[in-house]
């Protein structure tokens, strides 16, 4: 036991890194480092001090070289999601544009409740050299800089203006990221001079610390209220969100549903809480959902929502559920548990489901209700079969999804994020195993696909049971952010990437047309300022970054190419064109509130506004 007066003199940056390296977490009886490493792009704002400190700990905290700060944040988020928020990656960027590039990543992590530690360069605390390179000056408040923008997208924010501050601030940032209720990005602004200032730190600050993620039981009175509602339910249903997996409550959810014969539907974040073949899995719910799930939601009298923030794509902008349905919301976060007149049950999902299961002993949903839900799911399965069938329409997302679904290993991880693919995968992917689908729709962020896949792959490679990481990406998102193809090849983290090219931002063109508007500036062919439109050679581009790649003409060729990709030893990119107009899944979608013009010279726009507003009649009014 060291003497409480023992100290060690270190720079702030050295102390910060040494503290991170000393943090461990207990996962399923094993103790591992909390921080698996990080992603870095060095510049004048972080290389001389923080870079020096990270180099001395490169064996304990491996640092991956990023190509783009935003994609580094996406990779860290993809890693955290794969690890069920139990391990964390940090990102460090230089002052100025390097740091501001991370804003979108922080927003994605915040929306998805994912831990992400941002260690970002900042302007000089002394202000003696001001204005410095890349400093954003605020004319009336010299304490404000670009880094203050992160306050809106961080769960914890601090600017370290003295070396001693990290003794308090760093543990607070870590505890925030490990709190199931407050989980999200933590931001530390590191002024360039303060990074190099020395301080006599207590040696206890660097002792090995084993952390745990707490499990908070619910208030017994909230359990009693939930039980009272459930025992009176004639048409109960469960909405399973992403929080089910983060709580490690998949088994408890299944046991609970089976014990009481309650149908289960999944949110987008909750995809892969149940295998597709489970008899109580009624399908995905919401705007991108299934007719089976949305049909029972319209009739259900009691809705048990577990681990979901009830986003508009889940609720169909609050038209999916019966207006008089009572929602019971089980959530670690009070903020999420009380939405839309829900009965909140605040606490850990695993513990709460165990308590509810015991208290509901003897209760079962009426057999006619459960059987009707299962009939609807069987019908939906038939629709999915038709969607993925080859040869019944032009090349489509659904056909490509079906090909991959039929050939992949049950433990392969599937990732997508933006455009039309989240809806198509949510509706048409048949889950083969638990926790194998990552449809990033909390922020629906273009560019997450390949970067998030790289992060997930790093996480998967830590397991002996590593299978493939499969990324679905559209041509629009590929053009926005693709440099982590190079990252994956450079680091030996193989991805299988399917680039499905529909000639532009086709899903938004679809929305544009559905609201009576003419195609305008979304498809490449409809750009108003252009030379002759041309197709990008995605295969050649991917090869230029070191990947193996090929282009296929149809889903039959895709199947053969996918087998080659499975046997490849490095990142493999497969490109296929899909139809921008007739290749969409049409069934199952709920109403979604968007702004449409009340007046327009275009009759089609006026008519579409009237049609769209009719959906509002089913909208559940919140409080």
In words, what does this structure look like?
It is a single chain. The protein is built from 24 helices and 23 strands. By secondary structure, it is α/β, with parallel strands linked by helices. The chain has three domains: 205 residues, Rossmann fold; 160 residues, Rossmann fold (3-Layer(aba) Sandwich); 189 residues, Thiamin diphosphate (ThDP)-binding fold, Pyr/PP domains (Rossmann fold, 3-Layer(aba) Sandwich). Strands 5-4-6-7-9-8 form a six-stranded parallel β-sheet, with helices on both faces. A six-stranded parallel β-sheet has the order 14-13-12-15-16-17, sandwiched between helices. Strands 19-18-20-21-23-22 form a six-stranded parallel β-sheet, sandwiched between helices. Strand 18, helix 17 and strand 19 form a beta-alpha-beta unit. Helix 16 runs parallel beside helix 23.
Name the quaternary structure. single chain
Return the structural class. alpha/beta
What about the largest sheet?
A: 6 strands, parallel
Beta-strand portion reads 15-25%
CATH domain class name of the largest domain: Alpha Beta
Number of domains: 3
What general outline do the C-alpha atoms trace?
globular
Mean pLDDT figure: 95
């Amino acid at each position: 036991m060291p003497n409480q007066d023992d100290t060690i003199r270190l720079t702030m940056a050295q102390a910060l890194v040494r503290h991170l390296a000393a943090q461990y977490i207990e996962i399923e009886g094993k103790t591992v480092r909390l921080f698996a490493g990080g992603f870095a792009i060095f510049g004048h704002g972080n290389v001389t001090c923080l870079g020096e400190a990270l180099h001395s700990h490169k064996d304990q905290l491996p640092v991956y070289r990023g190509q783009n700060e935003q994609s580094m944040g996406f990779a860290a988020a993809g890693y955290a999601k794969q690890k069920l928020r139990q391990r964390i990656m940090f990102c460090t960027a230089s002052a100025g544009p390097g740091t501001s590039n991370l804003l979108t990543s922080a927003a994605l992590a915040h929306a998805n409740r994912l831990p992400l530690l941002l260690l970002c360069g900042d302007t000089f605390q002394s202000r003696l050299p001001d204005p410095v390179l890349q400093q954003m000056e605020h004319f009336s408040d010299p304490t404000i800089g670009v880094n203050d923008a992160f306050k809106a997208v961080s769960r914890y924010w601090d600017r370290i203006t003295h070396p001693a501050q990290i003794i308090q601030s760093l543990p607070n940032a870590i505890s925030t990221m490990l709190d199931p209720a407050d989980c999200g990005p933590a931001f530390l602004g590191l002024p360039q001079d303060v990074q190099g200032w020395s301080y006599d730190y207590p040696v206890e600050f660097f002792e090995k610390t084993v952390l745990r993620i707490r499990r908070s039981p619910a208030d017994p009175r909230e359990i009693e209220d939930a039980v009272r509602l459930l025992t009176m339910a004639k048409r109960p249903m469960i909405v399973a969100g992403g929080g089910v997996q983060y709580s490690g409550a998949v088994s408890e959810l299944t046991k609970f549903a089976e014990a009481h014969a309650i149908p289960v539907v999944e949110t987008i974040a909750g995809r892969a809480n149940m295998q597709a073949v489970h008899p109580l899995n009624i399908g995905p719910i919401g705007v991108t959902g299934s007719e089976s799930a949305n049909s029972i939601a319209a009739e259900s009298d009691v809705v048990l929502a577990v681990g979901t923030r009830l986003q508009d794509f889940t609720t169909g902008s609050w038209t999916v559920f019966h207006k008089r349905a009572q929602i019971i919301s089980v959530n670690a976060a009070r903020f999420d548990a009380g939405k839309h007149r829900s009965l909140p049950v605040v606490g850990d999902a695993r513990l709460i489901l165990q308590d509810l299961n015991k208290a509901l002993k003897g209760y079962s949903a009426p057999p006619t209700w459960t059987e009707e839900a299962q009939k609807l799911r069987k019908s939906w399965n038939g629709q999915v079969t038709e969607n993925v069938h080859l040869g019944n329409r032009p090349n489509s997302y659904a056909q490509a999804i079906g090909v991959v679904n039929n050939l992949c290993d049950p433990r392969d991880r599937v990732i997508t994020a933006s455009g039309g693919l989240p809806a198509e995968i949510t509706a048409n992917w048949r889950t083969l195993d638990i926790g194998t689908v990552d449809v990033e729709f909390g922020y629906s962020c273009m560019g997450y696909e390949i970067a998030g896949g790289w992060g997930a792959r790093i996480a998967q490679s830590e397991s002996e049971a590593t299978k493939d990481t499969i990324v679905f990406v559209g041509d629009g998102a590929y053009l926005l952010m693709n440099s982590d193809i190079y990252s994956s090849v450079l680091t030996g983290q193989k991805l299988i990437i399917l680039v499905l090219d529909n000639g532009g931002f086709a899903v938004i063109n679809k929305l544009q047309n559905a609201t009576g508007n003419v195609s305008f500036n979304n498809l490449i062919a409809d750009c108003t300022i252009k030379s002759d439109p041309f197709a990008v050679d995605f295969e050649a581009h991917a090869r230029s970054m070191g990947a193996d790649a090929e282009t296929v003409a149809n889903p039959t060729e895709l199947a053969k190419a996918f087998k080659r990709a499975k046997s490849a030893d490095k990142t493999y990119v497969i490109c296929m064109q899909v139809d921008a107009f007739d290749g969409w899944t049409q069934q199952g979608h709920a109403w979604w509130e968007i702004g449409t013009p009340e007046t327009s010279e275009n009759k089609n726009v006026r008519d579409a506004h009237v049609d769209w507003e009719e959906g509002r009649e089913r909208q559940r009014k919140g409080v």
